[in-house]
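User: Can you model how pyroglutamic acid sits in this protein?
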Amino acid sequence: MRLTAASLGLAALGFAAPAALAETWDMPLAYPATNFHSETAAAFAACVGEATGGALQIVTHPGGALYGGAEIKRAVQTGQTPIGERLLSAHQNEKPIYGVDSIPFLVSSFDEHEKLWEIAAPHVAEALAEDGLVYLYSVPWPPQGLYMNRAVAAADDLKGVKFRSYSAATARLAELTGMTPVQVEAAELSQALATGVAESFVSSAATGYDTKVWEHLSHFYEVDAWLPRNAIFANKAAFDALDAAAQSALTDCAAKAKAEGLARSKAYTTRTLDGLKAGGMEVGRAEPALVEALKAIGATMTEEWLASAGETGRAVVDAYRAGN
Ligand code: PCA
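Assistant: Here's the modeled complex, given as structure tokens:
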């Protein structure tokens, strides 16, 4: 527990410590402050502060300023920081269920994605619990498309391209199309493009917009390959140490953030697709030949994911497919 300046001041003056000491939780975020995920996290933090009457203050640190994206999950697990936000599919190599939101072409729209997530979320929460984490809420990124530095009409045009990956699924997609993947966090993406480390990537219009990608690349092909999620979780010991009122403030504000985040993600999709165009990019659907090739790769990747994810994975995908 961290003492606030105010409570330290009171103690120094010889006053009795207040019954419930205010606590501050630092919350690392990997994406820029203006991104909808970060805005949602800031609103969540404000909600918790208000609901606890200031007893639990959450301070967000966007842009990877406190921990880079790749470090956030471990930092929360080990209690270096009590709460954080992370793109869970980047941890698919730890547990396949973390990549349930990145099975190519299983879902392509927000509505389909939410149906899949409703089925998958309890299993993801269980996996996080095994890692010593309390799942609070999560918000999807907009549909994933392909950024390129030139026009591409078919999969062959992608051979040998230097490709920025952010997860096991993006790296595998690159391998299967003959591209060369290099893992780069969004915070370093601009630099990777500027220095020629990467000349292509798969992501949302949101991240391209946040990165001012038009400074380096010319095309965004909407393929709607999947919608990955950022999840917000707390260190279990830190959560358990809170009183019941603070715990319910966290879960109540999380439910609100989940809904608000989804609405923000949808609004940001339109805004950022327009932003890419305004930046001078060619934005549109990919050629059917390219889509077909990507879908064939998607089928391979779906089989691979199912083979790795065992009974739970199969049950989630079967339940989703049965309902659609
Ligand atoms: N943006 C994140 C992950 C998915 C997305 O749309 C990124 O590119 O790092």
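A couple of observations from the model: The chain has one domain: 17-322. The two ends are 47 Å apart (CA to CA).
User: Helpful, thanks.
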